[in-house]
Amino acid sequence: MDLEAVCKRSACHAKPQGLVLQYGTAGFRTNAQHLDHIMFRMGLLAVLRSKQTRSTIGVMVTASHNPEEDNGVKLIDPLGEMLAPSWEEHATCLASAEEQDMPRVLTAIMEKEAVDPQQAAFVVIGRDTRPSSEKLSQSVIDGVTVLGGQFHDYGLLTTPQLHYMVYCRNSGDRYGKATIEGYCQKLSKAFVELTKQASCSGDENRSVKVDCANGIGALKLKEMEHYFSQGLSVQLFNDGTEGRLNHLCGADFVKSHQKPPQGMEMKSNERCCSFDGDADRIVYYYCDANGHFHLIDGDKIATLISSFLKELLLELGESLNIGVIQTAYANGSSTRYLEEVMKVPVHCTKTGVKHLHHKAQEFDIGVYFEANGHGTALFSEAVEVKIKRLAQELEDEKGKAAKMLASIIDLFNQAAGDAISDMLVIEAILALKGLTVQQWDAIYVDLPNRQLKVKVADRRVINTTDAERQAVTPPGLQEAINDLVKKYKLARAFVRPSGTEDIVRVYAEADSQESADRLAYEVSLVVFQLAGGIGERPQPSF
Ligand code: 16G
Ligand code: MG
Questions:
Q1: CA 215 to ligand 1 centroid distance, Å
Q2: Which residue has the higher pLDDT, 86 or 206?
Q3: Which stretches make up the Phosphoacetylglucosamine mutase AMG1 domain (predicted)?
């Protein structure tokens, strides 16, 4: 390894002096203008990680639901998972190093992680549709090649597709073929197999409207459409031909504003969904006959999926342990429904997919979803093998259940939450159960809730515990929140520093929208007072 060459090349991707960025919840993310050096350096780091793990590593250039002028990058570990925490630290160190310190920092990482410089390295790269993404992904490639790594550039991909590619390449194609055709074929075959079993679908002409956030999801759905065209008609909106990425549309907009995206023609009771900018989140919704908007978020998606899986397991007569993983943002009604009605164990983890994914791996079947619509279902390898064997051996109703489960295993992206794969699973379940979107929505009634942001001088003054549901610092904050919550019925509130923005997030729910709004506002005020609020004091919006 030629560190001198690295330094020379690095000078072409010079870091603005003093700029320090952190590898956050989902990698680096900021205005695209500040990211060139980060990309080059993440190319370097991916090579080191690849050498250390002797596996293919992924680098995805995207800023997901952020505005079009932002960008970001994250590394994907060998099994399609998020980067290991110790390497997140290396990423932050490397990204913050001044030019002259680069060789020292690189050497330190290699020593600490016992990286064999002679080992070969292979990196796969993907990018979203942002105007800045192509050039930035070239900088990643520059970093990879200067350290002697080999690479394959997939070009435009959704984030979950790159996770899929990485997983395929490291599992000797057992999981699937590491090509776009391989991805489309695997998912569409499973979808067609699964929906074949739908004998009495109430809704003969299955169709769904998809808001693609003007992002990569549109391109990839178009590419895939003809594979499953007979079972489902997909109508695309915000497909990137006109509007700006994530602007007034997309899953994040719909979830946080609780209203339909612009650019979508919604007729009453039509089933609609939104992807986010890199197609790893999905939320559903519809407008009823009175024009009221109904959001079906990640919690209701998890409920639909886990109850269907439970039914199939019951039919099959297999008692596998199934768990649902949520975060503090899960609506209280969903948790209550899952635990009390469905009798499924529910676990709460910190926000961020890696935490949910990790917890889900502890179960035979782990269904994880964030309320914002990011999630999937994970099946342990032993369960997959067993179910696929039963699908071949059994006949009658049991055989049918086993075959459906086997198709569901193939249909879920086991490497990451995937809007396309989740949509196909949901569409298949609705068809199989003959459920309309209204019936699905009516499983339980969401508690009214409100999310707010508070600006503080340093959000790190807030530390949390109990999966972010309790604040341990600053002193007095949790007690103040507890006192406020007591004033309302069915109420709950928590605060946490954002992992992606320089703000503190406030969440409140209660028995009425008015109470939820009031509680969120009151909690914002105590955060402002006790955690060093800056700028204008929070104002009531009700
Ligand atoms: C990132 C996370 C998402 C999380 C969100 C929270 C991944 C792939 N994405 O988008 O899971 O919900 O951050 O953002 O991990 P916040 O910390 O700003 O609330
Ligand atoms: Mg995303």
A1: 18
A2: 86
A3: 208-283, 297-434
Q: Could you give the CA distance from residue 34 to residue 362 in angstroms, rounded to a whole number? A: 39
| Coil/strand/helix, residue 75 | strand
Tell me the average pLDDT of the chain.
95
The b/e string for 386-409 (b: 16+ C-beta within 10 A; e otherwise) is: bbbebbeebeeebebbbbbbbbbb
pLDDT at 1 over 90: no
| Model pLDDT, residue 522 | 98
State the DSSP string of 240-282. SSSS-TTTT-SHHHHHHHTSPPTT----TT--EEEE-TTS--E
Q: Are strands 28-31 and 70-76 parallel, antiparallel or unpaired?
A: antiparallel
pLDDT tens digits for 183-221? 999 999 999 999 988 765 455 568 999 999 999 999 999
> Do residues 279 and 158 make contact, with C-beta atoms less than 8 angstroms apart?
yes
* Structure confidence by residue, pLDDT tens digits, 350-393: 999 999 999 999 999 999 999 999 999 999 999 999 999 999 99
**Which residue among the candidates 10, 50, 64, 274 is catalytic per the annotation?**
64
In Å, what is the CA distance from 230 to each residue of 17, 225, 226, 296? Answer: 56, 9, 8, 26
The closest residue, in CA terms, to atom 5 on ligand 1 is 352
Residue with tokens 């003969």: 204
For the chain, domains (ranges, CATH) are 3-156 (3.40.120.10), 183-188+197-296 (3.40.120.10), 298-418+433-442 (3.40.120), 449-531 (3.30.310.50)
User: Which residue is closest in CA terms to ligand 1's atom 19?
Assistant: 498
> DSSP letter at 447?
P
26 lines ligand 1 (CB under 6 A): yes
Going from the Cα of 499 to the center of ligand 1, the distance in angstroms, rounded, reads: 7
Neighbours of ion ligand 2 (CB under 5 A): 64, 276, 278, 280
DSSP state of 406: H
| Helical (H) or strand (E) element with 159 | helix 159-170
CA distance 279 to 283: 11
Across residues 106-128, what is the average pLDDT?
97
